[in-house]
């Protein structure tokens, strides 16, 4: 676990992303603030539609504009506000200083170019390498992510790789320019359990070896338990709880976090209670939230939850939550 003196490499404050649709504006990200420390792995969890991916893509200007409009800020990285950066400045950051691994490698890799070409492209563009040096570095990268016979496989095309190997290729491309931050958007979702475990071990080894900071987006709390230092729980386009991973699992404070943990199967051998199902769906926010977005699915909601959207408040030295209900007392929190 990192200590409090470890410097931040990324600082996000009050990020907002709105999409203009035929049905009206959709407020997908609402006042999201967090920081990322050098060398740590930050987990971001929540259901589909909770705003995880849109938040991280907004940081790098990867959401289409229009229909998206990104406001708030600043988003500080290496002394630069990414929200006010030009397209050219963002291109220099994307893929070079901040790497991004998407969920489905088959749609992220170009099927008509060899894997070697796609690995060499960022090396030649961002690092100024010639073809010979770029090919040598591409071979090293495939070896780094555990692909055997790397030099020969540079000439293969994406369809010649298995799903797990394609994901390793995507990780190699994201690592090509030695990024300071790697954002991984549910990179193991489409893989079977054995391959998922291999990719997770690979990411832990790479973080320890390269010293980069990682943001890991997932809906799988089991994944987060095994790799993360800290966790952000997102719901309705905002962060509802933030804590170190052990603290979050041992002492969850938000009803949504507690409900998520109750949906995880018990594999310790004893007879487990029936798995919980969180009834309902995440909200589609047609206006900026003025009430708790989880109130309609929460068994502890009371009048104030419909009148006011709770701000994140500290409930411990390194633990904060956006909720008016106190699980310790079973009553409204004294705020």
How does this model look, in words?
- Strand 10 and strand 11 (238-244) form a beta hairpin.
- Helices cover 32% and strands 24% of the residues.
- The protein is of the alpha/beta class and 335 residues long.
- The chain has 12 helices and 15 strands.
Main attributes of the structure:
335 residues; eight-stranded mixed sheet; five-stranded antiparallel sheet
State Rg: 21 Å
> Topology as H/E string?
EEEHEEEHEHHHHHEHEHEEHHHEEEE
Question: Using DSSP, what is the number of strands?
Answer: 15
Summarize the main sheet: 8 strands, mixed
How many angstroms does the end-to-end distance come to? 30 Å
Number of helical segments?
A: 12
- What are the low-pLDDT stretches, counting only 5+ consecutive residues below 50? none
Percent helix, as a range, is 25-40%
Percent of sequence in beta strands: 15-25%
Lay out the secondary structure.
Layout (H helix, E strand, L loop, with lengths): L7 E14 L2 E14 L3 E5 L6 H8 L8 E4 L3 E3 L2 E2 L5 H7 L4 E4 L3 H4 L6 H12 L4 H14 L5 H4 L9 H13 L5 E5 L7 H18 L2 E6 L2 H7 L2 E6 L2 E7 H6 L4 H8 L40 H5 L5 E4 L2 E3 L3 E2 L4 E2 L3
Parallel strand pairs: 3-9, 3-10, 7-8, 8-9
Antiparallel strand pairs: 1-2, 1-4, 1-5, 5-6, 10-11, 11-13, 12-13, 14-15
Brief summary:
32% of the residues lie in helices and 24% in strands. With 335 residues, the protein is of the alpha/beta class.
């Amino acid at each position: 676990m990192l200590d409090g003196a470890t410097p931040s490499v990324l600082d996000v404050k009050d990020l907002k992303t709105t999409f203009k649709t035929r049905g009206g504006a959709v407020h997908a990200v609402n006042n999201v603030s967090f920081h990322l420390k050098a060398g740590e792995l930050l987990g971001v969890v929540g259901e589909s539609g909770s705003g995880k991916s849109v938040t991280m893509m907004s940081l790098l200007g990867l959401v289409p504009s229009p229909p998206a409009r990104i406001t708030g800020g600043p988003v500080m990285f290496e002394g630069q506000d990414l929200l006010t950066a030009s397209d050219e400045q963002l291109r220099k950051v994307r893929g070079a200083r901040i790497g991004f691994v998407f969920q489905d490698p088959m749609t992220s890799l170009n099927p008509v170019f060899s894997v070697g070409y796609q690995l060499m492209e960022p090396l030649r563009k961002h690092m100024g390498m010639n073809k010979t040096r770029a090919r040598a570095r591409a071979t090293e990268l495939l070896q780094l992510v555990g692909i055997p016979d790397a030099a020969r496989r540079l000439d293969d095309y994406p369809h010649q790789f298995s799903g797990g190997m394609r994901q390793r290729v995507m990780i190699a491309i994201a690592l090509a320019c030695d990024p300071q931050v790697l954002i991984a958007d549910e990179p193991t979702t489409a893989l079977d359990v054995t391959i998922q475990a291999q990719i997770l071990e690979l990411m832990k080894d790479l973080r320890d070896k390269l010293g980069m900071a990682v943001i890991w987006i997932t809906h799988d709390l089991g994944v987060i338990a095994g790799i993360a230092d800290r966790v952000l729980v997102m719901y309705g386009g905002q962060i509802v709880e933030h804590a170190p991973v052990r603290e979050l699992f041992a002492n969850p404070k938000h009803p949504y976090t507690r409900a998520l943990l109750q949906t995880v199967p018990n594999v310790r051998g004893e007879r487990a209670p029936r798995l919980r199902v969180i009834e309902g769906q995440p909200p589609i926010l047609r206006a900026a939230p003025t009430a708790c977005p989880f109130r309609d699915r929460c068994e502890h909601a009371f009048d104030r939850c419909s009148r006011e959207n709770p701000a994140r408040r500290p409930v411990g030295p390194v633990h904060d939550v956006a909720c008016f209900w106190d699980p310790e007392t079973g009553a409204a929190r004294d705020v």
